[in-house]
UniProtKB/TrEMBL annotation, chain B:
PANTHER family: TEICHOIC ACIDS EXPORT ATP-BINDING PROTEIN TAGH
InterPro entries, per the entry: AAA+_ATPase, ABC_transporter-like_ATP-bd, ABC_transpr_TagH-like, Bact_Polysacc_Export_ATP-bd, P-loop_NTPase, Wzt_C
The protein, known as: ABC transporter ATP-binding protein
Keyword Transmembrane listed: no
GO cellular component: membrane
Compositional bias (Basic and acidic residues): 250-287
UniProt keyword annotation of Acetylation present: no
Length: 282, 427
């Protein structure tokens, strides 16, 4: 029994080392994906920025004029939450078909299959980083109230939060891409799930609003359920850093890290288990 | 894993599910339960073998026997249902060449992506770039998109990448049919070179000749099990005669069917022509097999002056006379000869088909003469194999070590055969 465990650990170590050896493949897939994403469209790479900007306009109009809220500079609040969300949701939905869409390669040649979801999530991540340039420009143009409590030093936490989100997104992408091979409907189901998931995450509103409503209705303990959403601490941290200019709460950061690692390990183990049958199932 | 081994395969079994009508959607899975019916087919029923470091082995067997599945298991595209496979070192496969090529990208870019699929880093690829380009002979086309390549060029590029990976273990599936004859020869030499550098090679091929040239060992897989294993010289004749018998059976069935047809047509009795199994067995002795329709009686060697002898001077003429007795007409007969050094190295081999002689039928017993004009074999003992085959390669009489011949020489040159040569001294 012990021997089996040891063997399993050894095979995981070997796999991780192999993944490192295959970094050039990941890199070239990311490059291919980024280059190919808008190839042939008139605006080309500009779509990278236009797409979230247009979504932002729509949400801003709906949520600041039709459904009123009391968040100042709502467009900025929205934008800061929307970009990480778009990264996560595309990792989940488009990432779920990352293995299926490379079916020709999977059936014919060997490479560690984990490369496929990793490459997709990484390219989405790079895409998000580029979009954040726009956020910074908006922040600088929009200006910060000199009397506010905004600390630029809070930005030092930003890379940590981004990495944690990357880890979480990768975990979900691995889980989804492996399961979708055996169960193709998942791709479509995930589309619906992410739509609902977005409203369960504090992107268009503030966490305190949910809390107030739940407490008013006497269902305060439902808040724990709400906080189980692994994207909540991440989006809260983004807002704390970029919108409020504060270092994120350690408890928020910690729960984000724990959830991220949990889902990465879960996704990785499920993927390892299921990838053995990929070539036959596809 | 033993330290001297590169590959260890232990009791590997593999079954495939053959779906009669597969549904992969939820609706289909739930509603049409009968759609998920499948048959299980055991492709491998327990295979074990080991390959030492630097060894080259060939997997042979008829279509669907499981040899390609074995190779796919070694590449880790699929996994065994039971048993274990252990391999040491970097594995490269020449199985699906060019999978992962992107038609819109240039040859050069594709080299990068393709080499990356083998797990090479950019630095490693850069280091090999010149070798890859030189080997592919595609310098001028390297910046054109791959979709503009001919299929031969495509394969050449893919082969060049795969073979320059510097793998510890190289897996090859029936691919030495790349490009024109020149390129094939080049691939072959490269394979030898790689082997000499200590790479372990596993080849799946129907071309036994290719395996004989590269591999020290052949494994014959039959219906998912290893049927024979050993040096190609021992395994291949066994395999060939098995396949010959099988073909004979098929040919006989075909013949019976034809005869039945004719019977119906002409309402006549057709003559039964069949070799009894006892007769087949009788002709299948050590180092000798065939269907027995003709049998080699004697193989005699004569010198230029007509004297029968078995010892010749290097470079002299050797006349081979093969006397055969005919039991049944042999259509489109092919005579073949193989010359082997006493340690088993094949020095030469040819037959009337290779030499493009007109096809001929054997209708009565007789003698076949073959004059070997200048036999430049260096001193030592040699064996001659003589074979008669019919129509589609069915062995009629394959006679191993039919005659022994010895050569002598005063000159102390070394090797297998003397190459005619001249020195030109510097002025």
């Amino acid at each position: 029994m012990n021997n089996k465990k040891k063997r399993k650990r050894e095979s995981i170590m070997k796999n991780l080392k192999e993944l490192y050896d295959y970094r050039q493949m990941i890199f070239s897939l990311v490059k291919k994906d980024l280059r190919g994403r808008y190839k042939g469209s008139a605006l080309g790479f500009l779509w990278t920025f236009l797409n979230p900007l247009l979504q932002l306009v729509v949400y801003s109009i709906v949520f600041s004029t039709i459904f009123r809220n009391n968040i100042e500079k709502f467009y900025l609040y929205l934008f800061i939450g929307l970009l990480p969300w778009m990264f996560f949701s595309s990792s989940l939905t488009v990432g779920s078909v990352s293995v299926i869409s490379s079916k020709d390669m999977v059936k014919k040649i060997y490479f560690p299959r984990e490369v496929l979801p990793i490459a997709y999530v990484t390219s989405s991540f790079v895409n998000m980083l580029l979009c954040f340039l726009v956020v910074f420009i908006v922040m600088i143009i929009g200006g910060i109230d000199p009397n506010s409590t905004f600390h630029w030093t809070a930005l030092l936490y930003l890379p940590i939060v981004m990495i944690v989100e990357y880890v979480l997104a990768l975990g979900f992408a691995m889980l989804a891409s492996a399961l979708t091979v055996y169960f193709r409907d998942l791709e479509h189901i995930l589309g619906i799930i992410t739509m609902a998931w977005m409203y369960a995450t504090p992107i268009l509103y503030d966490v305190s609003m949910i809390q107030n409503i739940l407490v008013e209705k006497g269902m305060g303990n439902l808040m724990h359920l709400y906080m189980l959403n692994p994207m909540t601490p991440i989006i809260v941290a983004y807002h704390q850093i970029l919108y409020y200019g504060q270092a994120p709460d350690m408890s928020t950061l910690l729960s984000a890290v724990v959830l991220g690692l949990f889902f990465l390990i879960l996704g990785y183990l499920v993927f390892r288990k299921l990838q053995r049958g990929f070539a036959e199932e596809l | 894993m033993k330290p001297e081994n590169a590959i260890e395969v232990k009791d590997v079994t593999k079954k495939f599910k053959v779906y009669l009508d597969k549904g992969s959607q939820l609706k289909e899975r739930l509603l049409f339960h009968e759609r998920n019916r499948y048959e299980e087919r055991w492709v491998l029923k327990g295979i074990s073998f080991e390959v030492k470091k630097g060894e080259a082995i060939g997997l042979i067997g008829h279509n669907g026997c499981g040899k390609s599945t074995t190779l796919k298991l070694l590449t880790r595209i699929i996994y065994p249902d039971a048993g274990s496979i252990e391999m040491r070192g970097r594995v490269s496969s020449l199985i699906e060449l060019g999978a992962g090529f992107h038609p819109d990208m240039s040859g050069r870019e594709n080299i990068y992506t393709n080499a990356a699929i083998f797990g090479l880093t950019k630095k490693e690829i850069d280091a090999r770039m010149d070798d890859i380009i030189a080997f592919s002979e595609l310098e001028e086309f390297l910046d054109n998109p791959v979709r503009t390549y001919s299929s031969g060029m495509y394969m050449r590029l893919a082969f060049s990448v795969a073979i320059n990976v510097d793998a510890d273990i190289l897996l090859i599936d029936e691919i030495l049919a790349v490009g024109d004859t020149n390129f094939q020869a080049k691939c072959f030499n490269k394979l030898r070179e790689i082997k000499a550098q200590g790479t372990t090679i596993v080849i799946v091929s129907h071309s036994l000749g290719q395996i004989e040239q590269i591999c020290e060992r052949s494994i014959w897989i039959h219906d998912g099990q290893i049927r024979a294993e050993g040096s190609p010289r021992d395994v291949h004749p066994e395999y060939l005669s098995f396949m010959g018998e099988k073909r004979q059976e098929i040919a006989e069935k075909e013949k019976e069917r034809q005869e039945e047809k004719e019977q119906k047509k002409h309402h006549e009795e057709a003559e039964e022509k069949k070799v009894s199994p006892e007769e087949l067995e009788k002709t299948k002795q050590d180092g000798r097999w065939g269907n027995g329709h003709a049998r080699i009686q004697s193989v005699k060697l004569y010198a230029e002056n007509g004297q029968e002898q078995n010892v010749f001077a290097t470079g002299s003429l050797v006349m081979v006379k093969v006397a055969y007795e005919l039991k049944e007409t042999v259509k489109d007969a092919v005579f073949g000869i193989g010359v082997f050094r006493s340690d088993g190295v094949q020095c030469y081999g040819t037959n009337t088909r290779i030499d493009q002689l007109e096809e001929f039928n054997l209708t009565k017993s007789g003698t076949m003469c073959l004059s070997l004009d200048h036999v430049n074999l260096l001193p030592g003992e040699y064996w001659l194999d003589i074979a008669i085959e019919s129509e589609v390669g069915i062995p009629v009489d394959y006679y191993r070590q039919a005659a022994k011949v010895e050569f002598y020489s005063q000159i102390g040159d070394v090797g297998i055969a003397r190459i005619d040569h001249k020195w030109k001294l510097p002025e």
